[in-house]
Amino acid sequence: MALLEIKDLTVRFYTQEGVVTAVDNLSYQIKRGEKFGVVGESGAGKSVTALSLMRLIDSPGRIESGEILFKGQNILDMTEKEVRSLRGNEISMIFQDAQTALNPVYTVGEQISEAMRHHLGYSNEEARERSIQLLDQVGIPEAETRYSDYPHEFSGGMQQRAVIAMALSCDPDLLLCDEPTTALDVTIETQILDLIEELADEFDTAVQLITHDLGVVADICDRVMVMYAGKPVEKAPVEELYYDPKHPYTVGLMSSIPRVGDTRDRLQTIPGTMPDLVELPPGCSFHPRCPFAEDACTTTEPALIDIESSDEATVDSSRAAACLEYTDQLQNGLDYEVRVVDENTGSEMNPTQTGGSQNV
Amino acid sequence: MRRIYESDALRRDDGPFSPTEVKRQKRPQRNGTGEPSFLSKFIPQAMANKAVYVSVTTPRKTYPRGVPIPFSVHFKNSMPFSVSIPTKSPLLWTWNIDEIIEASHVSVRDPPDETDRFGFNRGERKTFTRRWSQSFRLTDSTWEPAATGRYTIGVGINVDDPVSAGLYDEVTIEIVDE
């Protein structure tokens, strides 16, 4: 049984402007100890998905339909008390902005201890000892002294480490990391990611890593889901996603990664922006930006198709993409090429896809 | 040294964004960002309905086939006090093409079965924009382009009978072959 199974999750926000469908019919699963990446541009619905898992969607947002099965129990059917016992205990979240996530009027140590006292029934002294141990584990120097510091006395990287310590304090089974390194510089980013990976391996914690950085995903994750406009457009094991992307959006995302030594004058981008989630274009939501779009894409919304069986994907499908190409409704097909170049020798290795000139 | 006002950097003309000496005729109205006051709930419904004015406009009356049609929806509270209108669901207002809600033959969403209120501060105006893609949704995953001809874009607050409550407006446009 999967640790987490999400079935047909739909989350909408009822605003004066209109109804924002932030997550639309989303299904996926995460196994125990697995590292699962969720990627996509801003506004793709990644964070809303994570917040839904902890039932933290606030008004005017509503989880309209679907099931969130954690260890076989539907979180959406639980009472508020049951959900509170789950949050921070069995499911923890590392938020994007550590400074905002930490309470400025409590010491960092107290904030870590609180979760352990509440969920694990530790005494003050036990919680303090364990907090100092955790702070030390996440690389805070002089952890015992720093225990009594307030969040403003920590640097950005240290605050993020403190939030990670807090998230790991109750030894969760599932760790939701919502762009944990966005606000940090690259050296700290690497340290934090290594830390998450190391700690997840040590505690056998499943990780759902939300990011817009495909490099981070390649480094850490086992499987990836690419989201666009609230819907999953591709799901794949991480290596297959990089070597053989099936959706034009994934191809666009990967070709927009800047590379050292690239001779192009301008960085490659996906033209246009994410559509307004209040009014999505008809047909495939990505068609206005897709270089391979045809007339059929404007009138038919592609289902998420299991690439191996060519049937509609299920939560068990390991490889799936939502493009009309996989239901034979595109006349010209997807015309791109994946070239894998060895950084050291500059030679090409094992090209896979056909056509065009996307250097992924 | 030349002063900034001696140069040509500043122009005083009648352009919409140029500074002018003309005093504003009307006092600026309060921005519509806040919630309407609690007391707005106690305004009689008939009065609230009369206070709120709904209109829909398009930049042009004819559009070539296949070109998305933008339209602006305006709501205005003409009263110097807050009003709010109870709606059937959290979906506060809807638009339709020839009475087909959001140009879809299938129900696009199923709003929660609970009422809400569309609130306006004193003198508040709200403007929202939408685009009709010139297509009708036939099923959950298929659309059909609209044929040439005249279509009516209607907008109403989500109450039982927005037309008779005076909370509805419509505009007619024509789709033509280029």
Automatic annotation (TrEMBL), chain A:
Domain ABC transporter: 4-254
SUPFAM superfamilies referenced in this protein's UniProt entry, alphabetically: P-loop containing nucleoside triphosphate hydrolases (SSF52540)
Keyword Nucleotide-binding: yes
PROSITE patterns xref list: ABC_TRANSPORTER_1 (PS00211), ABC_TRANSPORTER_2 (PS50893)
Entry's Gene Ontology molecular function annotations: ATP binding; ATP hydrolysis activity
Main location: membrane
Top-level division of the source organism's lineage: Archaea
Membrane-related topology note: Peripheral membrane protein
GO cellular component: plasma membrane
Alphabetized InterPro entries for the sequence: AAA+_ATPase, ABC_Ni/Peptide_Import, ABC_transporter-like_ATP-bd, ABC_transporter-like_CS, Oligopep_ABC_C, P-loop_NTPase
Signal peptide annotation: none
One protein family per Pfam: ABC_tran
Localization per record: Cell membrane
Gene3D superfamilies: P-loop containing nucleotide triphosphate hydrolases
Any GO BP annotation: peptide transport
Keywords from the UniProt entry: ATP-binding, Cell membrane, Membrane, Nucleotide-binding, Transport
Identification of the protein by name: ABC transporter ATP-binding protein
Organism: Natronocalculus amylovorans
Lineage: Archaea, Methanobacteriati, Methanobacteriota, Stenosarchaea group, Halobacteria
From TrEMBL, chain B:
Start-end of Basic and acidic residues biased regions: 1-15
InterPro entries associated with the record: DUF7974 (IPR058280)
Domain DUF7974: 41-176
Annotated region (Disordered), positions in chain: 1-38
Protein name: DUF7974 domain-containing protein
Organism of provenance: Natronocalculus amylovorans
